[in-house]
Amino acid sequence: MRDTPAPQLGPLLRDWRQRRRLSQLDLAGDARISTRHLSFIETGRSRPSRGLILHLGELLDLPLRERNRLLLAAGFAPHFAENALASAPLQPALEALRHLLQAQDPNPAVVVDRHWNLVLANRMAERLLAGVAADLLQPNCNVLKLTLHPLGLASAIINLGEWRAHLLARLRRQVAVDGNSELSSLLQELSGYAPLPDEDQPGGYRSPAPDVLVLLRLRSPAGELRLFSTITVFGTPIDITLSELALESFYPADADTAERLRALAAID
Description:
Layout (H helix, E strand, L loop, with lengths): L8 H11 L4 H8 L3 H9 L6 H10 L4 H10 L17 H14 L4 E4 L5 E4 L1 H6 L14 H6 L11 H19 L2 H11 L24 E3 L6 E8 L7 H4 L2 E7 L2 H12 L2
Antiparallel strand pairs: 1-2, 1-5, 3-4, 4-5
Helix pairs in contact: 1-3, 2-3, 4-5, 9-10
């Protein structure tokens, strides 16, 4: 097997600049360097300092993992640490996440990583996933697969066509911004799932104001749940693991749903 060639700084930097739709003039101006200097960096004729690489990564709003990758490509040591969530340095963050999940009860909430793999879930989220096929609930299960797979939540989603389009559009934007190959493969897999019967029928269930907010409309033992979601991330993380975690919380869109969530929470 041939070893994969190590990435070079110039092509990596140019690719990210183009992803951000910036010209060399734009980025050089923001970085307060000459366009000539930036051009030399991208073509490998100039070796930037460690500080300049970090500055360019910040201006390009790169994920911390990718900023480390730029540094390594230039021959520098990584700047950002990557600790396991269960490790001692991240114990305060882990406890904060557990507290936030518990505080959401009886509203469902999950913590996911950068690939939408499930990291933590609160009691209501686990309850709503109870009918999902066991194979989909293995460790490192993916919440987008859990949602859209025919053996997952898909059959319980009343507005599946609308929710499918919403999730795929969100994932497509993430792939365009991050350039992540695993997310790209996930998008390809999810896009290949066959629609369930009647999910795209004209006149089917739709969110009442889809231009403002797309609702997840879910069948449950207590009746239909109408939910909207928010995503929370850590504000200024300097650890890669923390920077890639997101808390997605689902809230009732009406009083009936709030009451039904309370009824579900009361079931033993």
